[in-house]
Design a protein that fits this description.
- The protein has 388 residues and is mostly helical.
- It has 13 helices and 5 strands.
- Helices cover 64% and strands 6% of the residues.
- The two termini are 13 Å apart.
- The relative contact order is 0.17.
């Protein structure tokens, strides 16, 4: 704590701030996630690997590694990372391209991971999200007032588009591509006071999506629609595709419906017994609803709302625009991913593979999310509380 005398002779003190509320919420979500991963995956893990705690142990390793990284990043001044913004952008692009090399690993029919032989598979899309937040925060600060013009917005958006396209086409991960673009749009929306531009672009985008969905729904058959076209048809009428693309969605809805208000009890889910494929990943929220009921689902949603609220508090009190944009980028990443995951599980949007932050099984996801939390905590430490 430091102090100085004011003109009135009273001592004006400033105290360093640290957001323990944010840290507690993240740790609670991680702990809850570990419990749900074990509850959800124990049957499948014992059948496939002979160890009911197989997925739990792997997630615990990723969580511990992520917490070490979070503590390190939180204790480094966040402006230190500004000098690595361009390098991070280029590295993320290279890592995405490496998926096509022998380093790329295919899991469950998807080639999205890299294996460097260190005992942990890395998903380049997760690194791209983190690097994009850092790069855009740096770039927006350098462009300054020009961000208000169409040219400025176009220049900034020209950088996340190639990364998003690479993630989509090379790793066949459209959901992560959407998240990267969503992070970019949210950061620009906060940095630019010209909201009319975003309303026009958003309206045009919504109209285009509606036209695509209408065209797919009106097609006489699924021939030529492709994988994602079939998913959209299954989203509109999951029962008609119960044995195919609509199977996972229907089983998730059965789990949600059977949970009732207070659920069947922890560990008592029936849908996790081989009915929902990879239940510990994208569909873990449906198991939460089945075992803990509507009460548990609302509690989880409230925790995420509290987390987003803490992000907003830190962003509003950040000492500069760069720090505020870093926090906004992390907030956008977490909030978009939560919304998309819950929307998929409840069949609000077409099925797409996306995890629930800090809760779903996935080492790369939790590792780089915790690095992002470290950035937010570093920004929070730069806030000074003044007391007269």
């Amino acid at each position: 704590m430091a102090g100085r005398f004011t003109k009135s002779g009273r001592t004006k003190r400033s105290e360093q701030y640290f957001d323990y509320s944010l840290l507690f919420i993240v740790l609670f979500l991680m702990g809850f996630g570990m419990i749900m991963i074990y509850s959800t995956s124990s049957y499948e893990a014992s059948m496939d690997y002979g160890d009911a705690a197989y997925y739990l142990k792997k997630q615990l390793f990723a969580n511990v590694l992520g917490m070490i990284a979070m503590i390190f990043v939180a204790n480094v001044p966040y402006h230190f990372w500004e000098r690595f913004a361009v390098l991070g952008y280029l590295v993320s692009a290279v890592l995405i391209c490496l998926v096509m090399t022998p380093l790329g690993v295919e899991v469950k029919g998807a080639r999205r991971w890299l294996d460097f032989g260190i005992g942990l598979r890395i998903q380049p899309a997760e690194i791209a999200k983190l690097c994009m937040i850092l790069f855009l925060a740096t770039m927006v600060c350098r462009i300054g007032r020009n961000i208000r013009t169409w040219k400025g917005l176009g220049v900034v958006m020209a950088f996340p588009l190639p990364i998003a396209l690479m993630v989509w086409k090379i790793t066949d991960n459209m959901s992560s591509a959407v998240i990267i673009l969503g992070i970019a749009v949210l950061m620009l929306f906060v940095a630019s006071p010209e909201y009319k531009k975003f309303i026009l672009v958003g309206a045009a985008g919504a109209a285009a999506v509606a036209a695509i969905v209408y065209a797919i729904a009106s097609a006489p058959s699924t021939e030529g629609l492709g994988f994602r076209g079939e998913r959209i048809r299954a989203w509109l009428d999951p029962e008609a595709y119960a044995s195919g693309k609509g199977f996972q969605t229907l089983q998730a809805l059965y789990a949600i419906g059977s949970g009732g208000i207070f659920g069947k009890g922890l560990g008592q889910s029936m849908q996790k017994l081989g009915f929902i494929p990879e239940a510990q990943n994208d569909m873990i929220f449906s198991i939460i609803c089945e075992e803990l009921g509507l009460f548990g689902a609302i509690a989880v949603i409230l925790l995420f709302l509290l987390l987003i609220w803490r992000f907003m508090i830190i962003a509003n009190n950040a000492p500069d625009l760069f720090g505020a944009l870093l926090v906004v980028g992390v907030m956008g990443h977490v909030s978009i991913q939560v919304i998309l995951n819950i929307a998929v599980v409840t069949n609000t949007i077409p099925n797409t593979g996306i995890s629930l932050p800090f809760i779903s099984y996935g080492g790369s996801s939790v590792l780089f999310l915790l690095v992002e939390i470290g950035l937010v905590l570093s920004v929070s430490k730069s806030i000074r509380l003044k007391e007269v």
